[in-house]
Amino acid sequence: MAHNFNVRKALEVLSDDSSEGSTREKIKTLYQLSTLSNVNIIPREVIEKIIEILETTENRMIINSILAAIQHLAQFERTRMMLGDSTDCIKLLVPYMSQFNFPNIQSNALDALCQLVKGYTKNQETLMKYANEFFNPILGIIQREADNIVKKATNLLDTLFDNTYCVHTIFGDENNYDEYLEPLIICLQMEQNKPVVEWALSTIEKACSKNIIYIKYLMDIGIIDPLCNILLDKSNLHQSRVLALKILVFCCKFSNEGGKWTGEGADGLTIESLIDIMYQSSMELNSSNITQSYALSSETNELRELSFELMMYMTHFLIGREHLRNLTQVEIENNLAKRAEEDTLGLETNNKGNDEDDGKKLKEEKKIEIPSLFDNKKKAGDDEEEETKIVDILQENKRKIVMHVNGLQVLFAYIGQDDPPKDQIVERKHVGRVRKYAIQIIANLCTISEYCVIILNREQRLISHSDKAMNIIDLLLDILVNKKEKISERDKKKLAAAKNSLNATLDIKLDLKQVIINAMESFSLHNDSVNKLTEIGVIKRLLKMIDDGIEPLEVAKLLAKMCEHTNFQQVFFEEQGLQRIIKLLHGTDPDHRYAGLLLCLPLASTPKGCIALSRENIDKLVKSIVKKEVLFENVRSLARKVNHIFKLNNNSSLRATKAATGLNLNNEELLSLGELLKFNYEEIARIDKDYVVNCQMKIRELLKNNKFRIQVNWREIERLIDCNFADQAISILSRQELWDELVLAIEEFVEASDANFHSFNTQVHMIILEVLPPKKKENKEVSKGEEDEGEEDEEAMPCELEVNELFMKYKISPDGVFWTPKQLAGLISFELLLYDIIEFNSTLLGGEAEDRDEQYELGIDQLKRVCKDSRLAMLGDINILYFHLESNELLWRSSFAESQMITASKSIIAADELFIKGWKIAKLNKDGLLQERILLLTNKSYYTVCFDPKSKKIDFKHCKHHNLADYFLCDVGKLVKSKYDTTGSTIHLYEDGKNKYALNLVTNEKPHKSKKNNKLEEEAEELHKLKHMSFASSTSSSFGATPSDDLSMSTSLDRLDSDDLLSTAQDEDSSLPKELPSTIGKYASPFLPPDSVPRNKQKCYLLEIAWCFRAVASAFQRQECNEIYERDIIKPIESKLARLYNMTGLGKKKDSSIISKHMEAKQRREQEKQEQRIKQAQTKGLKNIKNNNL
């Protein structure tokens, strides 16, 4: 036939459209092409002509002939590549998939496409560009057409889905996944067409095995219900049920919701179906109804094993594994990668021959964390408040298993079954995997306290242990001792390869010893289960196994996992567990020392455990192992890790204050271990972290002294256990106002006089806080009426203060009544200077001077903490600030007239903006004009509104809108005059002999360009740099001491632990001044407080505005904005018009109405009464203190 083919004649025939018989000749030529064996003689021009005819003709006979020719030519590599690369053949074949009225053309087009994409990746990817045109028609063919056509369509899709790119196009399209995947879900529901169902299941399973992300989109369009129905229908083919189980496993792995929806699928009968499969295939439970050949067949084993695996993931709740429909693929992949990094359920190697490798791995670890089954950050049994917030949505699945008649029965049966003979390798592996699944299911069920107690109480007779009924502990310990798992080198390589895949990030690592450890950890999560373990003697049994040398390393791993939870630690101490640790650490076997260190690791990680280990000198024993261990690197590495944890806990103030206060405690004076466990060391650690460290940093910045320390004498607090007052003392120390008022008191004392700064730095190097013991009540016989009167007249026990040898002790009242900052500052002055300089200054200034508004300052400190909340910048959650401003009574409350003006000015705000707060301010423009404005802050912008109280109208011409996207920073400082300002100022820069405060709001808006403004900006920058340089030099030189001072300091500080001095040295640079951001080229708006704000509240008033602006801008910009800086603000140079304007007071708006004056007077009287009541309450516990000191 090749010799008869004439290329020139073929081109002429194919190009002839006008002559009679051209159609017949074309068909004849196309037939020759479809039967030609040597296609290499066909030139490119002929193929291009065929495709051109296919594009233009509507003759069905010619189309069929062309499709047959394409099918034949696509069988050869050269012509297949030519058709795909050089022509639009694939694009033209796609529309024929939809021609259901012409089945012959549709069938031939399918055949042609199958040949084109077979073995050629580029053609496959070209076809997927038109997925939205051909995929749904092909699935329509699969759902409706005859079997032979269906087979062609499935073959085409199978070929495409062997290509990862094609799979991702269909299953991973974030925008069109519902359009592509919904027809696949319909295929799963075709109960009458079993082959189509099986094909759809196989396709979905292959796609999900390549990338588990695809299961998210399948779950979004409802794949779980059809899968559950397939599983429940026993008439389905075995392979279909197996594939349905595999896909359901992917769903449950991906998210907790997947497990929940699987449990709810098929009218909630999924769990019952799984238990039914397990029960009916068990020779131990159902031997009368099944044969051994059926129970051990490969099909039964596969179905049984997948049922256990699905049940395991249906009960495995992980915090943070939510199913969110709005996640993008990139975010999902990032979450999976992050989850893989945080996964702490890795396999643990137990072979003795791998000691060196284990040591290297331990050495390389940077984080000192203990593996956890459920969450590596917070334990489920330690924090009851967290438990209430986190809801286990898989609890219903767990309930169904526990409450099912055969639920626990099948789990116990498969855990305790005998292993097959050694020659039956496949059966032994299957039994081992099912046993691990069952144990992990038990571990998952026991995360619920109620179900854990039920499982611990259950006993069951098994064929393998016919002598007695076995409980779960007996079964697990028997497996640990007698049924050791050996992993071959081949299996190890498979596990290592599987770890690299994306799907492996969601797998539970199924090592036999690890799942037993997981189960034992679950038993120790709850107080009820721990009590049950103690009741049945499990802890004693484990400790006896250590004494007898029965698998001490594995038992130590069990106990270490259980000791991660504080409710189990107390029982461990009571059962003399510390003595076993000492015995193991003194052992000659390296495995014993390693086991002892494993037990130390979780105990040293908690404050109570660390104290208990220290009192038994176990910390010193661990240090000796670090120094002496030479041969076994894994033991030495673990000892270093435990020793590091000891050092971290020893840096707490519990040990530092023992030396600082001069206490010399012998072992006889220490509390017993039982009393020790009553002390709340977790709360102590929180106070040290949240309050002591923050307060110390603030005072260091205030004193410019990086060596200043604050400690709490926890030893004295510990002794309050005898009078049952330790918990109350700790609660007093956890009050924020105590630490805030201490900082304010020191600040007031230091600012009272220049000499006070040097005096405090030289005489006080550490502040020690204690809580006084409560006053013992005297037993006096009094009548009921006298007793009531005595209770009312009884005064609160006052605080005490003493300074001695560079240390100041602040002894707090047990009644929780604190000194006000002014009172405490006065007592500090009395102790250091022998007179009260605070009261002396008040006397000199006379009645005209106003006291600092301490309540307002506390309100600003509270506002500052809220504004620094990370949720503002990370989540844009403005509600945190909004509700604080609404509920806090310590912040500024506008007068009646100002409130009316702010309310009226709110009409200028856009409809889509949320009003936050408004203030009355005095604004300085670029020419020095002083203008009263209403400053309104919303969630997106801020407004300066010119409101006339007389006419009750807004002057829109002088209102300005600013976007918070342009916010840069705020400065709050003293208002100073420019060196370039040679004219007299009409604005009073001073009040009561001190500079007025001002707020400088700086934004990224385009500034007003002028030489005058540029000079002012440069002057402000120079002023800041000079202060920065002087501060840096004073830090290094101004605190020099005489030799005698150095000697006295060294003798006192020598009492401190070396760890404390080391931490002090590391923190030396913490308060050095940092280069602040420049404001040159920025738009600056200076604001002054209005006349209605008193002098003592002006700075706080401006700080309130500044912090609110910073918080809202951080939330709007979704990033942390610059801090609030206290820099001097240079007043703009006044123009001639501004001088006249300011002198006449034209910028001040006054409301002279009678109602306004009456309401302002009333509000002023109420405020004065409230301040008077606060002062009386604060001074109640301070009577006669100074007289007693004298």
Short description:
With 1190 residues, this protein is of the alpha+beta class. Strand 5 (800-804) and strand 6 (807-812) form a beta hairpin.
SSE diagram, text form:
Elements: H1 7-15, H2 22-35, H3 44-56, H4 60-73, H5 77-86, H6 89-93, H7 103-117, H8 121-128, H9 131-144, H10 147-161, H11 164-171, H12 177-188, H13 194-210, H14 214-220, H15 224-232, H16 238-254, H17 256-268, H18 270-280, H19 283-286, H20 292-295, H21 298-314, H22 329-342, H23 355-364, H24 384-389, H25 395-403, H26 407-416, H27 425-445, H28 449-457, E1 459-462, E2 465-471, H29 472-482, H30 489-499, H31 512-523, H32 527-535, H33 538-547, H34 552-562, H35 566-574, H36 577-585, H37 590-604, H38 607-615, H39 618-628, H40 633-650, H41 653-660, H42 673-676, H43 681-703, E3 709-712, H44 714-719, H45 726-733, H46 736-752, H47 754-763, E4 766-771, H48 784-793, E5 800-804, E6 807-812, H49 821-833, H50 837-845, H51 854-867, H52 870-875, H53 879-887, H54 896-905, E7 915-924, E8 930-938, E9 941-945, E10 947-948, E11 953-954, E12 960-963, E13 967-976, E14 990-991, E15 994-995, E16 997-1003, H55 1011-1037, H56 1043-1053, H57 1058-1066, E17 1083-1088, H58 1098-1117, E18 1124-1125, E19 1129-1130, H59 1136-1144, H60 1154-1178, H61 1185-1189
Parallel strand pairs: 3-4, 4-6, 13-18, 13-19
Antiparallel strand pairs: 1-2, 5-6, 7-8, 7-17, 8-9, 9-12, 10-11, 13-16, 14-15, 16-17
Helix pairs in contact: 1-3, 2-4, 4-7, 7-10, 9-10, 9-12, 12-13, 13-16, 15-16, 15-17, 16-17, 16-21, 18-21, 21-27, 23-40, 26-27, 27-31, 28-32, 31-34, 33-34, 34-37, 36-37, 37-38, 37-40, 39-40, 43-46, 46-47, 46-49, 51-58
